[in-house]
């Protein structure tokens, strides 16, 4: 088991080489893109974003250092935060502390996968009590985790993988999901998150899952659709994407079974409150 901490150190030479190959990142391209994005932000008088280099890189890496695309992403995020203001306004870790600590719905592996990607596991079945935790609560936790992930250069460059585990899912879970919640989640993933989502994997889906997929399917765009994989209980199929050497035994992997969860991860969020406040200040003026 690794330590519960964010990897905020500057990227290694190896990581910068990946960024060069995949994201066009070189010192020259980076400097020019930052300068251009600062000018665009200055001209965008309705937007409020810090313009320090470290912060701007969060938006430039997923848009491959095209400043206009980065500005569009910033505008999309501002629009999303406005549309879901009641859910997200000034959201702090303490607002979702009980979901982190008392309900083991969302977990982040302490290790990365074979491609250096963060791996998040979302338990949408037996671990989820919809009476205690609504789909809005789950989204607020996901949103909080994404703020933290943005701080990691290695995650900015390599991206993330999400595993949705539906083991033990029943009708009470299906009833707790809504078209509005599905739209909010997919709009966030596809339009309003700076994270590079490299794969979404569905495992242990019961027959009932078809009802859930009916909620989500209308909002899935082609790019994301190509990165969604449905494995059922065939974990060997999951291992083709996330190698078993990097997964706990709960998921057919060769690492020890998970013995940690949100309770262990929550203190990490409390260590980065200044960045979270900074992020919360972004959006439309």
UniProtKB/TrEMBL annotation:
Pfam families: CRAL_TRIO
GO MF annotation, one: phosphatidylinositol bisphosphate binding
Gene Ontology annotations for the cellular component aspect, listed alphabetically: membrane
Domain of life: Eukaryota
Name this protein carries in UniProt: CRAL-TRIO domain-containing protein
All copies of domain CRAL-TRIO, residue ranges: 96-259
InterPro entries: CRAL-TRIO_dom, CRAL-TRIO_dom_sf, CRAL/TRIO_N_dom, CRAL/TRIO_N_dom_sf
PANTHER family in UniProt: ALPHA-TOCOPHEROL TRANSFER PROTEIN-RELATED (PTHR10174), MIP26555P1 (PTHR10174:SF212)
UniProt-listed Gene3D superfamilies: Alpha-tocopherol transfer, CRAL-TRIO lipid binding domain, N-terminal domain of phosphatidylinositol transfer protein sec14p
């Amino acid at each position: 088991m690794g330590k519960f901490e964010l990897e905020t150190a500057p990227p290694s030479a190896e990581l910068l080489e990946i960024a060069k190959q995949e994201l066009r990142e070189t010192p020259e391209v980076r400097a020019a893109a930052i300068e251009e994005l600062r000018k665009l932000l200055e001209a965008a008088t309705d937007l409020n974003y810090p313009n320090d280099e470290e912060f701007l890189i969060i938006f430039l890496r997923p848009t491959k250092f095209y400043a206009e695309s980065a500005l569009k992403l910033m505008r999309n995020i501002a629009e999303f935060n406005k549309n879901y203001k009641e859910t997200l306004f000034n959201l702090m870790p303490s607002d979702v502390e009980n979901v982190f600590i008392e309900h083991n719905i969302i977990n982040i592996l302490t290790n990365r996968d074979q491609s250096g990607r963060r791996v998040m596991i979302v338990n949408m079945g037996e671990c989820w009590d919809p009476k205690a935790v609504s789909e809005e609560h789950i989204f607020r936790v996901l949103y909080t985790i994404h703020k933290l992930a943005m701080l990691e250069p290695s995650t900015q460059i390599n991206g993330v993988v999400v595993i949705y585990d539906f083991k033990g899912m029943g009708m009470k879970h299906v009833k707790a999901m809504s078209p509005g919640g599905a739209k909010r989640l997919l709009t966030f993933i596809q339009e309003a998150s700076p994270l590079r989502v490299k794969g979404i994997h569905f495992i242990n889906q019961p027959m009932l899952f078809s009802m859930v997929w009916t909620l989500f399917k209308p909002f899935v765009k082609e790019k994301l659709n190509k990165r969604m994989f449905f494995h059922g209980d065939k974990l060997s199929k999951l291992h083709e994407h996330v190698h078993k050497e990097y997964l706990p035994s709960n998921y057919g992997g060769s690492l020890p079974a998970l013995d940690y969860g949100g309770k262990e991860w929550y203190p990490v969020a409390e260590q980065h409150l200044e960045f979270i406040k900074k992020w919360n200040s972004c959006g439309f003026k």
